[in-house]
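User: Here's a chain of 378 residues. Predict its fold as tokens.
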Amino acid sequence: MPLPLPADDDVLLEPPGAEETTAEVRAMAAAVESGGTLTPLQRAVLEAVTKSMTGHAVDLGELPPFDAAAAAAPFARRNLMFRSRLVQVMLLGALVLRPLPEDVVDRATAMAAELGVDEQLIPVARRFADGALGLAGIDFERNGYTAEWHPDDARFLHTSRQLQDAWESAVADAPLAARWRELEDLPGGSLGRRVTELYRARGFVYPGMPGSAPPLLAQHDWVHVLADYGTTVEAELEVFAFIARANDDLRAFSLLAMVVSLFETGYLRTGAGLFQADTGHLSAGSNVVVRMADAMRRGARCTGSVDFLGVDWFELAPLPVDEVRRRFGVEPKSPEAIAAGSVGPWERGGISPFQLRAGQDAARAAGAEYDAFGASVA
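Assistant: Prediction complete.
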């Protein structure tokens, strides 16, 4: 029987202390260990996320045997949102496994059920374990961030026609392309102007033109500037961790699960209408794990619940970047994330070699002098 939710007068809303954090995270880790232990990547992810989100360091070296009822006990006074967030951290620890053993999914499912959490991405993990990767991609759409997409939701994208699919491209939309091009006339240092510089340095194509990203995916490009993240694959993990955790709609977690499944395990071959699988980036070193964990912290610390893919960025485009950051409560990166290599779009390492060449080629084709606006490859 699931652990009952606490009564309103008994619910614990304060941040967890060190003892509670240790008990809860070790319980989650025991649910997703493989072969009697966590893999190095699992341990790095769970320890880094715990430290970043709670401020408490937890050692996940020796884990207790898994027992769902006993593991759920430390959550007795926690509400459904708190439990759901911890289940998502647990699931993140499972999704970095390839192969993903069925018994890990079984234990994760049992843990979520014991806590009364209906995590919609657990069936996706089941598909991964079964090797049904095509069906897993479908389940992402059915159960994730875009599950309730409606054409009316595209109003903040400013397309000249309705989009029937969330990640649909709009490659013949001259008014949309013109709106984006007009951002180049905004004052230097404004959010919109900086986004156009991000595009021009990398040879990105404005939405509405052939070769452009889907308008919904282009929403995340504003976050690269807002949150000061470069545009390498590792930085995409940061951006989507930030976006996913800023949103109180629990389905936004699927955005982080998507990029992990694209850029670490390769369970998904494509995503968001443009991304292609490119594996091993999270396990390339503990530095990327630290960066992703700090991005989750920064997203969680934003003011209120923010759906950064649902913001009308054109309304904010004329404002200085720092002013927009204050509006959303975007905090600075941690010293640990900076030391781990987290850089902005205009720094060394903030652009990939491919993007640099694309930007140079685009400038040459337009008969213009190339400007990287400070960005350079690592």
